[in-house]
Amino acid sequence: MIKNAKDFGFEIIAKDKKSKARAGKITTAHGIIETPSFVPVGTKASVRSLSPQDLKNLQVQIIFGNTYHLHLQPGEDTVKDFGGLAKFMNWDGPTITDSGGFQVFSLGKKTVKMIEDFEDDESEESLVKITEDGVEFRSHIDGSKHMFTPEISVEIQRKLGADLILAFDECAPHPSTYEYTKEAMDRTHNWAIRSLAASKLKQHHPWQQALYGIVQGGIYKDLREESAKFISKLNFDGMAIGGVSVGESKKEMVDVLNWTVPLLPEDKPRHLLGIGEVDDIFAAVENGIDTFDCVIPTRFGRYGIIFSGIPEGNIKTKFRIDIKKSIFAKDKGPLSRNCNCYVCKNFTRGYINHLFKAQELSAYRLASYHNVYFLINLVSKIREAIIDGNFQKMKQEWFV
């Protein structure tokens, strides 16, 4: 990560001749992000089980914070009082926050009924109320009532102080009917215009916050194309693609990219929300995506699912193993062959297997450390391959 950058900017360094893959750099006030780049998720101002120093050692370039969760706890005013998200968590680098829309819709319905009925209705559906103005919902923590609008979402992100922020959107669940997906897309478009207007009203920090618009439209080709064209015409600093990895097939995700990316501006960075498996990363990069975030490396780490560079198992689990399985109890090899991370250099599969069976907390940290390294290192090599003109060769080596 290169320091001492000033204003937001994006530059393309190299392109692959046989695909849309590209290498570039995103300039922010807190550093330059070399793309393609995988973005670990620090939902509540913490990448689970890993310290900021761990992340620096892993050469992480940017961290993703969650607007919904940080609004509920500890609150954006508290984070602002500490100097913004990066200072609050002692992270010396760029940050990005989402709009909170996805969590409102996915977590809002899981709220326990702890206080009075919402709109005098005890059904779970009533825990989230969507209108053209915004979304009223209950906290999944204590059932308290909250309201997110485009203006409120942008204001929260302003106070959180991230370098990159996202417009408020509605992520239609999968599966959704064509009719509802279109309604959600139209709301997202209206909210995009309002998010842009809100972003120009106040400045809480001495650095520029770049606003990304979000393309929606579910798995419907005409809606995705309509959304990509609409968002592209607005004066956003970057483009994000939402509504993937929500239950659709991998083919459907690739279809969405094929429909969407060609309609996005070439000179603006593109972020894909919510992908982090090896095949998804190659598909994203090949389709011209610059950055992508996911909780997968640390979530897998807590479950004992380890990324591996050697094909082991069927195609669905080709690049990962379950270290908790008894076959690894006496395995003296590293978690992943040819991996140079701290964990693979110092510990065996047998030892990590033991830690999980003994329910030692260090199991989660070591597995997560390896998984984050694995993806950061993979994407770094993909970038090198694009610059050197070897991306297609590298892909073939991974998917023999």
Overall 3D shape: globular
Oligomer: single chain
Mean pLDDT, all residues: 91
What fold name goes in the CATH topology slot of the largest domain?
A: TIM Barrel
The CATH architecture category of the largest domain equals Alpha-Beta Barrel
Distance between the termini: 32 Å
The CATH class designation of the largest domain is: Alpha Beta
The assigned structural class equals alpha/beta
- Tell me the CATH superfamily of the largest domain: Queuine tRNA-ribosyltransferase-like
Q: Please list the strands of the largest sheet in the order they lie side by side.
A: 4-14-13-12-11-10-6-5
Strand content: 15-25%
How helix-rich are the residues, as a percent range? 25-40%
Number of strands: 16
Q: Helical region count?
A: 15
Q: Poorly predicted ranges (pLDDT <50, ≥5 residues)?
A: 1-5, 108-125
